[in-house]
Amino acid sequence: MSEKPKTVLLLSGGVDSTTTLAIAKQHGFDVHALTFRYGQRHDIEIAAAQRIAAHFKVAQHVVVNIDLRVFGGSALTSDLEVPKGRSLDDIAHGIPITYVPARNTIFLSYALAWAEVLTASDIFIGVNALDYSGYPDCRPEYITAYQHMANLATKAAVEGRQCLTIHTPLIHLSKAQIIQKGRELGVDYALTLSCYDPTPTGAACGGCDACLLRLKGFAESGLTDPAIYRS
Predict the structure, then answer these.
(1) Over the stretch 133-143, which tens digit does the pLDDT of each residue have?
(2) Contacts of 53 by beta carbon, 8 Å cutoff, 6+ apart
(3) Nearest to 163 by CA among 148, 175, 176
(4) Residue 148: which CATH number?
(5) Tell me: the pLDDT tens digits for 24-48?
(6) How far is residue 207's CA from residue 79's CA, in Å, rounded to a whole number?
(7) 228 contact partners, CB below 8 Å, separation of at least 6
(8) pLDDT tens digits for 77-97?
(9) Is residue 11 part of a domain?
(10) What are phi and psi of 58, to 5 degrees?
């Protein structure tokens, strides 16, 4: 019996990363999940990631502590107000204040380091370039460039023992298509948390970009969002 290929998967606890986890498992990967406590105001998402990792019985789940509040520059890592009630057209254009400078570059670099230690040649990340908030580190050209860099950056790659592939199975899907795919794979979205500004108990605000895109996705997929929202 052949051993399953190992992969490092970035798991935030939201819809996209959870669906990506289900896809990685469907494809037969032995998933090592990586979550970050980076000073985000919505750090309750870490508990969601832990629930999801346990539900999917991943091989290993590591929560890494870093503190991007030392730099700030984002409504997620500072006292800046999280935008609420933006139109979907506004969300689709420009880069909002919820962008965390270089976040995916930082996260992928940790994933790259762990992948080398695990002798894994695959990383999964749930970035999306359709229904998203315009973040530059979610674009296909960014992922292509990072993968090229990654294969120049490690001892394993230089010695020919690793050729890294970064998998982005959601990158060209709408939020509705992502949710439909997840439902086909049996994902329980009640486990997930998407909100940028939830209550301490995890109730979603319903007005931030993440909530609005989530609600749009469930509405367009014809499904009821199981998330709990503030009354």
Answers:
(1) 678 999 999 99
(2) 11, 33, 35, 61
(3) 148
(4) 3.40.50.620
(5) 999 999 999 999 999 999 999 999 9
(6) 18
(7) 202, 203, 204
(8) 999 999 999 998 888 888 899
(9) yes
(10) -65, 160
Q: How far apart are CA 114 and CA 118, in angstroms?
A: 6
Percentage of residues of the chain with pLDDT beyond 70: 98
Q: Report if residue 228 sits inside a domain.
A: no
Residue 109, both tokens: 């670099």
Sequential DSSP letters for 119-186 = T--EEE----SSSS---GGGSHHHHHHHHHHHHHH-HHHHTTS---EEE-TTTT--HHHHHHHHHHTT
Q: Against a cut of 0.90, is the pTM above it? A: yes
> Residue 1 — pLDDT band, cuts 50, 70, 90?
very low
Q: Tell me whether residue 231 is in a domain.
A: no
Say if 158 falls within a structural domain: yes
Domain, as residue range, for 80: 6-221
- The rounded distance, in Å, linking the Cα atoms of 177 and 54 is 25
**Alpha carbon distance 229, 31 (integer Å):** 31
Buried b (16+ CB within 10 A) or exposed e, 114-140: bbbebebbbbbbbbbbbbbbbbebbee
Q: Quote the number of domains for the chain.
A: 1
Query: Is residue 129 over pLDDT 80?
Result: yes
